[in-house]
């Protein structure tokens, strides 16, 4: 059995955007999570961190060499967190366009090695929907990337639903990628250094996904596809309790905002959500995710360049699963979800 390894959550950043992040840091931008994340990465003298940043801005030989060394046939590229979601609506919209042009150019140069997702600025939902459309129809991008909250706002707010409408109409997924917890909840994470990829990202992004589910967005957009990294940001482990408590809350009429849905929350996770293995090179939870969500719903991702650990590919290569299922994990699921 042969398969191609397609990696679905691979980050890049045009230097133009990193330069703007530098200015936001200097200006004291209002989101503490942004300072924790980019205050660490930008201009860090540690050579290991400088390597991460060098790889981040490269869509050429450095990255292709790394892919060759780890046997990655194709990366699905996405603008790194927090994307353009920290800028005002007008600037975010302009920078999303230029970032998408930048990645589309690299894909044109290496069409067999790269695919990409469109960055969008949810700050202007109508323009974001238009940019997703342009990204897919004009640039050949395969979906959208949203780096979780946009200054404390989540996509379950109906004001953002033009984005869902566009994704559903275009039949492309939206990848909800982590960022640091929103300003209203980051405090206790920061105190113990837990706001980043160690745990805060998953709490933030799992919350985002669950908010979308209980909002009824999937009843309104039944063919909407959402992709989440890190094996579903914890949610697959919680399905039983979420279903049980959601139904109890609905029948008790406990919250005006918690409404009866057409299906159980877990059913949306099994039917509208796909998860990737980014950052989770560990056999037990990968097998668990495949067993509760189905082998068609788990996709491989590396999380390059943040978690570029070449040996980790061995974990997925050596999973005790059928060859056909390994091919689904590495290749066919990505081809079908992203329409590669
Ligand atoms: C980190 C990890 C940063 C991931 C990321 O984007 C990121 C990190 C700023 O380790 O600081 O995408 N990740 O997805 O796990
Ligand atoms: Mn990532």
Describe the structure.
The chain has helices at residues 15-27, 32-41, 47-57, 61-70, 89-109, 125-137, 161-170, 187-191, 200-214, 217-220, 230-233, 239-252, 265-271, 283-293, 313-317, 323-338; strands at residues 6-12, 74-79, 114-116, 118-119, 144-146, 174-176, 226-228, 273-276, 298-299. It has 340 residues and is an alpha/beta fold. The protein has one domain (6-338): Alpha-Beta Barrel (TIM Barrel), CATH 3.20.20. The strands form two sheets. Strands 4-5-6-7-8-9 form a six-stranded parallel sheet. A three-stranded parallel sheet has the order 1-2-3. The protein has 16 helices and nine strands. The longest helix is centred in the N-terminal third of the chain and has 21 residues, at 89-109. The mean pLDDT is 98. Helix 6 runs parallel beside helix 7 (161-170). Strand 5 (144-146), helix 7 (161-170) and strand 6 (174-176) form a beta-alpha-beta unit. The chain is 50% helix and 10% strand. The site of 4-hydroxy-3-methoxy-5-nitrobenzoic acid has 12 residues, from loops.
Helical residue percent band: 40-55%
Bound ligand species: 4-hydroxy-3-methoxy-5-nitrobenzoic acid, manganese (II) ion
| Shape estimate | globular
What is the assembly state of the chains in this entry? single chain
Q: What is the alpha-carbon Rg in Å? A: 19 Å
The number of E-state strands comes to 9
Task: From the 3D structure, determine the CATH topology.
Answer: TIM Barrel
* CATH top level class name: Alpha Beta
For the biggest β-sheet, the strand order reads 4-5-6-7-8-9
């Amino acid at each position: 059995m042969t398969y191609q390894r397609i990696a679905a959550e691979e980050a890049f950043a045009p230097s133009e955007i990193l330069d703007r992040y530098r200015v936001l840091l200097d200006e004291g931008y209002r989101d503490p999570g942004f300072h924790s994340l980019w205050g660490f990465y930008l201009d860090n003298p540690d050579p290991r961190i400088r390597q991460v940043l060098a790889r981040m801005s490269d869509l050429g030989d450095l990255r292709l060499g790394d892919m060759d060394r780890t046997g990655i046939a194709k990366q699905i590229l996405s603008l790194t967190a927090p994307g353009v979601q920290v800028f005002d609506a007008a600037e975010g919209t302009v920078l999303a366009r230029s970032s998408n042009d930048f990645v589309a150019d690299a894909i044109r140069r290496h069409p067999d090695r790269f695919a990409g997702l469109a960055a969008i600025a949810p700050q202007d939902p109508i323009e974001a929907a238009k940019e997703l459309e342009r990204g897919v129809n004009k640039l050949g991008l395969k979906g959208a990337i949203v780096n979780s909250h946009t200054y404390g706002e989540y996509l379950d707010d109906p004001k953002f639903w033009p984005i869902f409408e566009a994704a559903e109409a275009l039949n492309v997924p939206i990848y909800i990628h982590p960022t640091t917890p929103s300003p209203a909840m980051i405090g206790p994470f920061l105190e113990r250094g837990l706001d980043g990829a160690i745990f805060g990202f998953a709490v933030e992004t799992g919350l985002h996904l669950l908010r979308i589910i209980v909002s009824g967005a999937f009843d309104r957009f039944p063919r909407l596809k959402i992709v989440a990294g890190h094996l579903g940001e914890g949610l697959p482990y919680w399905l039983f309790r979420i279903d049980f408590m959601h139904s109890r809350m609905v029948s008790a009429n406990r919250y005006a905002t918690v409404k009866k849905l057409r299906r159980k929350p877990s059913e949306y996770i099994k039917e509208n959500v796909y998860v990737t293995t980014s950052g989770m090179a560990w056999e037990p939870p990968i097998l668990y995710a495949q067993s509760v969500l189905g082998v068609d719903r788990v996709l491989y991702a590396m999380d390059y360049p943040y978690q570029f650990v070449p040996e980790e590919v061995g974990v997925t290569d050596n999973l005790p699963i059928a060859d056909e299922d390994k091919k689904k994990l590495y290749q066919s699921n990505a081809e079908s979800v992203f329409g590669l």
